[in-house]
Design goal:
The complex is a heterodimer.
Chain A (H helix, E strand, L loop, with lengths): L12 H11 L9 H17 L6 H18 L16 H21 L14 H12 L2 E2 L2 H14 L15 H15 L1 E3 H6 L4 H16 L3 E5 L6 E5 L4
Antiparallel strand pairs in A: 1-3, 2-4, 3-4
Helix pairs in contact in A: 1-4, 2-3, 7-9
Chain B lengths: L1 H13 L6 H7 L5 H18 L3 E6 L2 E6 L4 H8 L8 H13 L2 E2 H8 L4 H9 L3 E6 L7 E5 L1 H6 L14 H5 L1
Antiparallel strand pairs in B: 1-2, 3-5, 4-5
Helix pairs in contact in B: 1-3, 5-7
The chains are: A alpha+beta, B alpha+beta.
């Protein structure tokens, strides 16, 4: 029997499964697992024959479907009757329903009047352009330059607070957010400005770690206009 | 009074981000917040009655001038391109973060049934999602949540304005 197959791009195995359930007008609480498994596997074959990259997750769900199918073929043993075996499909159904919920929520979000798609604010392009000019001349820095700058600040700090017991709690995430907020406001700050305003050593270390972590996650960029010049930190502009 | 209203209008116009009552109160220090709120509402009504190309939108904890939704095509024509676009995958990931925050990546992976690394990174870069901290469980996974920019772009006053997820509670039992 020939299936008419429309080549939708699916967002994942659950999406494909939902599509098959809808296409066959199946009750999601009572999925004929043999039929769905068969169609699901056919779909995978077809995607493979078209040389579409098949993510591993599709195969995991295929295995799950086959596992459920085999479980349902087994006769229920009389002894177990009291305990009432849960339907082997239950977990999958729960997952499907949950996924469907968020898929709907995503579509609903997409129907709102979105900024820069449906509604617009005043353009702020001029500023962005001049920013880009600046960056064209900048040299990208390595982590070592940062470490260097950090040492410079630490070495100029006063010593003699050796016995201080600091009960103040600080979190790296907090510091990262503070830096992001600051950058959102000022657009770019020097490394010294970010680090130097806090006298205590603990704050320094947290700030430094926060900057490294933000760099690693590509949330910020670090520039230096010339060798040994001032190090500037700015938000990574979206591509 | 009329002059204060004009000042407020000018501030909102010149602000790059949605302007909050608090911020306006900082600038207009001798005007009461209640009065500022009242004047903002008056301005909103005036723009509504005028039904021109602009309206005043309450969004992300402030107010902002925006072009009317029906005029979007003209702005696109001027700017070229189709403006902000998110892939369906990114929208799904964003929806999960928005409704489940604070949320770790493994939870999003599980709900969507795919690895969400790519779409999550895109959302971080677009600043719709931010890192809120790390969860105190083995591996210290990163906790994600939505940003103010998310509210601004998706036209929400605050997170409580998100439409409710139907039946979500039943599912979680």
């Amino acid at each position: 029997m020939a299936y008419e197959i429309k080549l939708d791009i699916f967002e994942g195995p659950l999406d494909l499964l939902l599509f098959l359930i809808k296409k066959n007008e199946i009750d999601i609480y009572n999925i004929p697992i043999a039929l769905i498994t068969e169609q699901y596997l056919e779909y995978l074959d077809m995607m493979r024959s078209l040389n579409l990259d098949l993510a591993g997750e599709y195969l995991v769900l295929a295995a799950t479907l086959i596992h459920i199918k085999s479980k349902m073929l087994l006769p229920v043993e009389e002894d177990d009757h009291d305990e009432e075996d849960p339907d082997p499909r239950a977990e999958l159904v729960r997952q499907l329903l949950e996924y469907q919920l968020y898929k709907e929520a995503a579509m609903q979000l997409g129907t709102r009047p979105l900024l820069d798609r449906d509604v617009f604010t005043r353009g702020v392009m001029a500023e962005e352009l001049s920013d880009q000019d600046d960056q064209a001349m900048a040299i990208e820095l390595s982590v070592f330059d940062l470490v260097d700058a950090f040492y410079k600040i630490v070495s100029t700090m006063e010593k003699g607070e050796l016995l201080e017991i600091n009960t103040e709690k600080m979190s790296l995430a907090e510091r990262m957010n503070e830096i992001m907020d600051k950058l959102a406001e000022k657009r770019n700050l020097t490394f010294m400005e970010l680090l130097g305003e806090h006298a205590n050593r603990r704050m320094l270390i947290y700030t430094f770690l926060a900057i490294l972590e933000l760099m690693r996650q590509r949330m910020i960029r670090i520039y230096q206009a010339s060798s040994f010049g001032v190090i500037r930190v700015c938000l990574a502009v979206e591509s | 009074m009329e002059e204060n209203k004009a000042i407020i209008e000018a501030l909102i116009f010149a602000s790059e981000y949605p302007l909050s009552t608090d911020k306006i109160a900082d600038i207009l220090s001798d005007v009461k917040k209640d009065d500022i709120d009242r004047m903002i509402r008056e301005l909103m009504r005036e723009y509504e009655e005028r039904s021109g190309g602009l309206y005043l939108q309450e969004v992300a904890g402030g107010v902002q001038f925006r072009t009317r939704e029906s005029l979007g095509a003209w702005i696109h024509k001027m700017r070229g391109g189709r403006g902000m676009m998110l892939t369906p995958a990114a929208m799904e990931t964003l929806a999960v973060v928005a409704y489940r925050q604070p949320v770790v990546k493994s939870e999003i992976d599980k709900i969507r049934g795919v690895d969400v690394s790519g779409s999550l990174r895109g959302l971080l870069e677009k600043k719709f999602v931010r890192i809120m901290g790390r969860k105190d469980v083995p591996g210290k996974p990163i906790i994600y949540g939505t940003t103010k920019k998310f509210l601004e772009v998706f036209n929400l006053k605050d997170l409580s304005e998100l439409p409710t997820l139907r039946e979500l509670k039943d599912l979680q039992e």
